[in-house]
Amino acid sequence: IELAAEILVYFEKYKLIEISKRILVECALERPPNVQLWIAKNIKRIASEIYEDCLNHGKCGHIANLHLTSRFLYRVVIFGRPGSGCKTQAQYLVKRLNLVLLDADNLIYQHLRGDDKEPNDPLARELQRAFYYDNCEAKSKALANIIARRLLEYDCLSRGWVLINFPNGLTDFKEIMEHFKIPPNKLVYLKCPEKVCMLRLINMPNLGQPQMNCNYYEKEMRYFNRHCSEIEEYLLRRHETIFVDASRPSSVVRNEMLSLLEQSPYLTGFKQDLRE
């Protein structure tokens, strides 16, 4: 499964599927007597046209040769300040695009509690040990390993997924974007002012969770503020990033997010990579 997943990402990154489709279409239209010779002469031209289109970013944000198909598997990370609406928008994408919802907080609770079917799960033990010693770096690493394993399960590979509550810091972003076998191909950054987010949080119904208090929210905001500048600088350099103003009503944010997901150029990696 891991090998097949890595091959899929490799094909996506270098647009091998799009190049193959273009070759088949042009070959079918021209019907050359010597197919092998025709492919040898035209494959470089076709690849160059597709790559050049990537470099130019298409017209009006569209890339002519890279339309998203109806079977395109979205692998989405939604990131934003607490109260920006990450979970709300993720739940909408799950219903609209039939994605698997992955909540990092739920994965933490599940693995800290333990699984009766796998009582000796090494990743669960790693996470439990990190929490026991209150080692933040070890917590992030253990959680990243758990998420990476979850993304290789059949439902995620066959339907696509949307992840919330991870990554949280620059190291987490580098881990998931640069080292995961199945990295995200879309990253939604919900930008929302702190005051708006705090107002939303304090007006939420009390669900009985111990963290539903102002002190906890203020601590979360301080953590976000410490890391947001370096994270945003990193995300600005990546093709996968989509910025959405989340200070508006949820329905407006939802419509813009979906529109940008469907229309934005399908490119991955650092922007300067394509220019080198």
Q: What would you say about this model in short?
A:
This protein is an alpha/beta fold. It folds into 2 domains: 1-56; 75-121 and 148-263, 3-Layer(aba) Sandwich (Rossmann fold). It has helices at residues 2-13, 16-30, 35-56, 86-97, 104-113, 122-132, 136-151, 154-159, 170-178, 194-202, 214-236, 250-263, and strands at 75-80, 100-103, 161-164, 186-191, 241-245.
Explain what you see:
With 276 residues, this protein is an alpha/beta fold. Helices cover 58% and strands 9% of the residues. It has twelve helices and five strands. It has helices at residues 2-13, 16-30, 35-56, 86-97, 104-113, 122-132, 136-151, 154-159, 170-178, 194-202, 214-236, 250-263, and strands at residues 75-80, 100-103, 161-164, 186-191, 241-245. It has a five-stranded parallel beta sheet with strand order 2-3-1-4-5. The longest helix has 23 residues, at 214-236.
What is the CATH-assigned architecture of the largest domain? 3-Layer(aba) Sandwich
> What proportion strand?
5-15%
CATH topology of the largest domain: Rossmann fold
SSE pattern: HHHEHEHHHHEHEHHEH
Poorly predicted ranges (pLDDT <50, ≥5 residues)?
58-62
The radius of gyration computed from the alpha-carbon positions, rounded to a whole number of angstroms, is 21 Å
Overall average residue pLDDT: 87
Spatial sequence of strands, sheet with the most strands: 2-3-1-4-5
Distance between the termini: 32 Å
Q: How many DSSP E strands?
A: 5
